[in-house]
Design a protein that fits this description.
5% strand, 3-stranded antiparallel sheet, two-stranded antiparallel sheet, 18 helices, structural molecule activity, Arc Repressor Mutant, subunit A
């Protein structure tokens, strides 16, 4: 603290803001909070942003939001420095929005717990008590709307703003939280997948999961909001499991191979991993056998998973064909689709845009020209390498023969 005070007294603002994140602890956080705010209008906007995003995790949600608000005021009112600081404002606004959504979650949990503790038998509950509880719920609803509304404003207002990779990852995380709140699993998956891929990119660049360090519980990668704070493996796995779950219950179809190659995929819930792999393989028979368990795990979304596995199975079958056609008989045998359902099944697959082609009902054949792209597995990549190697050797033989 003495060093920080010396920097402040000597008006060494850059040194002050640069050293605060490495000096702050839970024991001195209030002193640093007061010291940082006492001269906040003297700091460069970049220093304000970097310092705030690094120290906010030491404070409770309300205080962190208050700190961000003061930082935003200082950046917007800055007359000491020239330049465009819109990207810094966007970064702090995104951070603030995520914190507001998290605050809503905490408020909901606390309200539910309070209601449980204060619950009385309905037969003796007075109208006054009911009115009090109604007021509490109304206040809670207002807070939730406030957090979601602010997130909605940020998601759509910042959609077309140019951002660097770090801020864009924060934007994707905020978008994921927003769409998750609204139950829009389709957009939720796209945004969370982008965020997770950025996390993986950071981990690949900096050997993030330090297995050699002896610490298996933390990863020095991005936090839920910025790349300046560590994220625990537990938090990372929670996000990964959500990504897997939402990709299954979403109505959209994804590159499942891309998802199961993310770091730590093997460490997710065994049951969730099993069902994900069944869908990825298009194993409709196994899904039908385990459908009751899938219903218990996914509830009303189980039917979506059941439909999805059949369509993924069809895509995989089409990929395995050497020609651009496949017989009804082959589809029915592999996917266990009845004669009565085969035509409507194929029509729906075409309607979903999973493949393009035509159905020959007379000859009972499906002809396709395009299949929805997907990542290839290791075995498929090995086969492709062998094919290219084989073609190359044949071409080299022809060239050698012609030269002679």
């Amino acid at each position: 603290m003495e060093t920080l005070l010396s920097f402040s007294q000597n008006r060494m603002w850059h040194h002050l803001t640069f050293n605060i994140p490495t000096t702050i602890t839970h024991s001195n956080k209030q002193q640093i909070y007061d010291l940082f705010l006492s001269n906040i209008f003297q700091y460069h906007p970049i220093s304000i942003t970097e310092c705030i995003t690094k120290i906010c995790r030491f404070y409770d949600t309300n205080k962190a939001i208050d700190l961000i608000n003061k930082g935003l005021d200082a950046i917007k009112d800055s007359h000491m420095y020239s330049g465009e600081f819109n990207s810094l404002v966007v970064e702090l606004e995104i951070y603030k929005s995520v914190l507001m959504l998290e605050k809503d979650d905490k408020d909901v949990s606390m309200s539910i717990e309070e209601n449980k503790n204060e619950e009385v038998s309905s037969s003796i509950c007075s109208n006054v008590d009911v009115g009090k509880n109604a007021c509490k719920n109304q206040d809670l609803d207002k807070n939730i709307v406030s957090g979601i509304s602010y997130a909605e404003k940020c998601v759509f207002e910042f959609k077309n703003i140019e951002m660097n990779d770090k801020v864009f990852s924060s934007y994707n995380f905020l978008s994921y939280k927003y769409y998750e709140k609204g139950g829009d699993y389709e957009n939720c998956v796209w945004k969370l997948l982008k965020y997770m891929k950025y996390v993986q990119k950071c981990s690949d660049n900096s050997n993030v999961c330090n297995n050699n360090s002896g610490d298996n519980n933390t990863c020095t990668i991005t936090s839920d909001v910025t790349s300046n704070i560590n994220i625990s493996k537990e938090s990372y796995l929670i996000l990964l499991e959500k990504l897997v779950k939402y990709s299954l219950i979403s109505k959209n179809f994804y590159n499942f191979t891309e998802i199961n190659t993310l770091h730590e995929f093997d460490k997710i819930s065994p049951l969730l991993k099993q069902y994900f792999q069944l869908v990825q393989e298009g194993n409709s028979k196994q899904v039908e056998q385990n459908y009751q368990q899938i219903e218990q795990l996914f509830g009303n979304h189980a039917l979506t998973i059941r439909k999805k596995v059949y369509y993924v199975g069809l895509i995989n079958l089409c990929f395995s064909q050497t020609t651009r056609s496949i017989s009804f008989k082959q589809i029915q045998y592999n996917l266990n689709v009845s004669d009565h359902d085969i035509n409507s099944f194929l029509l729906e697959a075409l309607g979903l845009g999973l493949l393009k082609g035509k159905i020959d009902g007379y000859n009972k054949m499906l002809y396709f020209s395009t299949i929805v792209p997907r990542c290839l597995g290791e075995e498929e990549l090995d086969k492709m390498r062998w094919k290219f190697g084989n073609w190359r050797s044949k071409i080299e033989e022809v060239i050698e023969m012609m030269e002679k």
